[in-house]
Amino acid sequence: MKTTTISGGKTDLCQDLPEHQHFTKIDYLVVRRALEELPLIEKLVVEMRFFHNFSIEEISRLLRMGWDETATLLESALPMLRRQCQSDPEFSRNLLHLKAA
Predict the structure, then answer these.
(1) Structural domain boundaries enclosing 67
(2) Contact, 48 vs 59, CB < 8 A?
(3) According to the 3-state scheme, what is the secondary structure of the chain?
(4) Comparison of pLDDT for 51 and 45, the residue scoring more
(5) Burial 57-94 (b: 16+ CB within 10 A, else e)
(6) How many CA atoms lie within 13 A of 78 on its CB side?
(7) What is the pLDDT of residues 79-94, one digit of tens each?
(8) Are 25 and 17 in contact (CB under 8 A)?
(9) Count of domains in the chain?
């Protein structure tokens, strides 16, 4: 799977998109807009987990926070992202069922 790179604190989610059978380029743009609405730490945790395929343990180690805190940030960010995406008419409705697992 291809992943994006994080450089200078920015991530270009349209460059080297991960291969995913459900996502379109428009979906990634919508997710990117939704990610911009999240607090910085939640945005970073979501990007690391879903766009870079880090485990929660790896994320917590890299960000120097506890596993529970990392998992809580991810769990609180996902409903916010889901609501943002649901409100965007360009987003594919078949993506809303995807889980953090």
Answers:
(1) 6-95
(2) yes
(3) CCCCCEECCEECCCCCCCCCCCCCHHHHHHHHHHHHCCCHHHHHHHHHHHHCCCCHHHHHHHHCCCHHHHHHHHHHHHHHHHHHHHCCCCCCHHHCCCCCC
(4) 45
(5) eebbeebeeeeeebbebbeebbebbbebbeeeeebeee
(6) 15
(7) 988 888 888 877 766 5
(8) yes
(9) 1
Structure tokens at 4: 């994006």
Quote the CA–CA distance of 59 and 82 in Å, as a whole number: 21
Q: pTM score, two decimals?
A: 0.66
- The answer to the question of residue 41 being in a domain is yes
Give CA–CA dist 90/52, Å, rounded: 24
CATH number at residue 59: 1.10.10.10
